[in-house]
Amino acid sequence: MTGTNYTSIETIPSIIQSLRTQFNTGLTKDVAFRKQQLANMIRFCNENNELLCDALWKDLRKHPMECDVGEISPIVDECEFMIKNLDKFTKPTYTTKRFIMNATDKTFIRKEAKGVVLVMGAWNYPVNLLLMPVVGAIAAGNCIAIKPSEVSQHTAELMATILPKYLDPRAYTVITGAIPETTAVLENRFDHIFYTGNGLVGKIVMTAAAKHLTPVTLELGGKSPAIVTEDADVNITAHRLLWGKFFNNGQTCVAPDYVLVAKSKLEPLLEAFRKTIVEYYGQDAQKSGSYGRIVSTRQFDRLKGLLDNCDPSTIVIGGETDREDLYMAPTIVSPVTPDNALMQQEIFGPILPVIPVEDMDEAIAFVNGRDQPLALYIFASPKYNYNKILDNTSSGGVLVNDILMHLQELSLPFGGVGPSGMGAYHGEKSFETFTHLRSTMVKDLMSEPVSSCRYPPYNEDKGKILGVLVYGLPAGVGAKISTVGSVCGAFWNFMLNKSSTGSDSKL
Fold this sequence. Notes:
By secondary structure, the protein is α/β, with parallel strands linked by helices. The chain folds into three domains: 26-220 and 428-438, Aldehyde Dehydrogenase, Chain A, domain 1, CATH 3.40.605.10; 225-408, Aldehyde Dehydrogenase, Chain A, domain 2; 444-501, no CATH class. Helices cover 43% and strands 16% of the residues. α9 (234-246) links the parallel β8 (225-228) and β9.
């Protein structure tokens, strides 16, 4: 998709206003309407599976199997989950009242749509990371401005041209464009913004949202570490760790960004890495249909610069590149020092630094010396007590003895902490993210004779009654007996006084 096909900047304010006008009609609040739109999303995924896979191949050289597992099937699964559970999710939740004064009243929480929301997708998983939050926003009853990343241009074009044929265009609009168009979009007021991408743009999004006091969900990234303990199974670790690292050519927000390994396991792990890479991609990964490509020359040059900055002797596996093909071989670099360029930013590509450590205390200190990562991976034997690592580190999520699979399990909320993001989604959490919990109380008019003790003029009798109605009786049998007598007397005086003044209401 080129600039000539982008949404006109001049039309963006009217597009957003149209969504707001539509939301105010109540169209998207109807649960049956939401279910139908979710069913339409399933049809979009199923009927356009080949087109989606073709676009993903052109953008990222994704194998159809990676397209299905990482992009399309999760969207279908999430839609089916929402349709099945939407009636339950939208029901009011009744609360247990804590104040005696409210004992006869109704207190409940309504689940209401926030309004008009903006969902901004990312280029590395241009279907999943765009549509997964959209599913949650539809289920919650919002109108949505959908902004795909222009970097994955073929997928963005497909979203712009085909998705509106399935979703009601009155309530859901796809806006395309690069920095100028995105800037224009962010100038408008939304009721929630959901952004997936890097921290630099995340700060821009949050700054724009602050002008309108708009809440945000930021799904960012960071340097997610993998810790390999001294008793880990080296063969299983190599297979699972490298599958997750090189899935989508390393362009995954929760890909392992570096490995901390016990020194006793370093050489066995590197040898297992060598065998695993050949097993996965053959002697020449460039000829493998299962190995992807870097998304653009800009990203390729960034990664090549990181590699060129390394001591050639530390590139123990891979290192080959082909700019014309946007190919970078599966690459392992070891040893790596903390001040190496590879350790200064999220790599987001098929380069994996391996750092030997004396023990797990050193590994924990290494992780804690950096920003909280989006994911933390621990490889250990079944008998290993990994809780020490969990108790002494912080991360968005944790996975023990595998890579990426916690992201695939949609029953787990997914999100970051600190610089790796804020807020979470997936499953019921997606519905909650785009929902306003509206606290509601319906007071009982028949309780007015008692409730009126809170009205001025204040006196000692009213104070005693309110003390019980609000705070309850004090602990202890003697105290309760004394208090009951005192309150009863105060209540009797209060009611007599009301009758004498004629202030009692006729209810």
